[in-house]
Design goal:
Elements: H1 3-13, H2 16-35, H3 40-49, H4 58-67, H5 74-78, H6 83-95, H7 100-108, H8 118-129, H9 138-147, H10 149-167, H11 173-187
The protein binds fe (ii) ion (2 copies).
The site of one fe (ii) ion has 5 residues, from helix 2.
Length: 189
């Protein structure tokens, strides 16, 4: 599907607020893609589609993973919000014609994932620096992003972990693994 067609489907599946968020992430994805010389339209498609499954009911999410034989872990079963990443990836590959690499970006966008590809890294940062977000540290994060995409991903992972700690909530294991992996890679550079 082309970008316009994907946009229409996304619009039909999300509330106005979440659709607006998706548009903002799409724009941010294009900006970061431009900075890092990645195909802009590919990144726009990933950005607009990334939260496509976000507003499914928990029951619908569980049905979707069952019907499509998507492997899920214990934490995703307990916190079905997390599942919008895997479902969104699956849906985008199946209906929007995404490549597996584009799908990986959506799958990784909530918790991070070991071996994130460039699409995944861009989306991960775009989802936190889009125009509709108002984190106080956006300026700081954007400065890091100007220099190094991996450092920016690491920063977002740290913030996610900090937030979970503050809330006294559990952390998905992928977030920790991704962080450890990035630290190691950055140290070896
Ligand atoms: Fe999301
Ligand atoms: Fe999002």
């Amino acid at each position: 599907m082309n970008l316009e067609e994907i946009r229409e489907v996304v619009k039909s599946k999300l509330s106005e607020k979440r659709y607006n968020h998706s548009i903002c992430v799409m724009k941010r994805c294009a900006e970061i893609a431009n900075m890092y010389e990645v195909d802009i339209e590919t990144m726009q498609k990933i950005g607009i589609a990334h939260d496509i499954a976000k507003e499914l009911e928990p029951k619908e999410k569980l049905e979707y993973v069952k019907n499509n034989r998507i492997q899920i872990d214990e934490m995703e079963l307990e916190n079905t919000t997390l599942l919008h990443a895997k479902i969104g990836a699956h849906f985008s590959i199946k209906y929007f014609g995404f490549t597996p690499e584009m799908g990986q970006a959506i799958e990784a966008h909530t918790t991070g994932m070991p071996d994130m590809n460039i699409f995944a890294k861009i989306l991960f940062v775009a989802d936190r620096t889009s125009e509709d977000r108002n984190f106080e540290d956006i300026g700081k994060l954007n400065k890091i992003l100007d220099i190094n995409l991996d450092e920016a991903v690491l920063y977002v992972l740290d913030k996610k972990i900090e937030l979970q700690l503050k809330k006294g909530k559990s952390m998905h294991v992928n977030t920790i693994i991704t962080r450890n992996e990035l630290i190691k890679q950055l140290e070896n550079k």
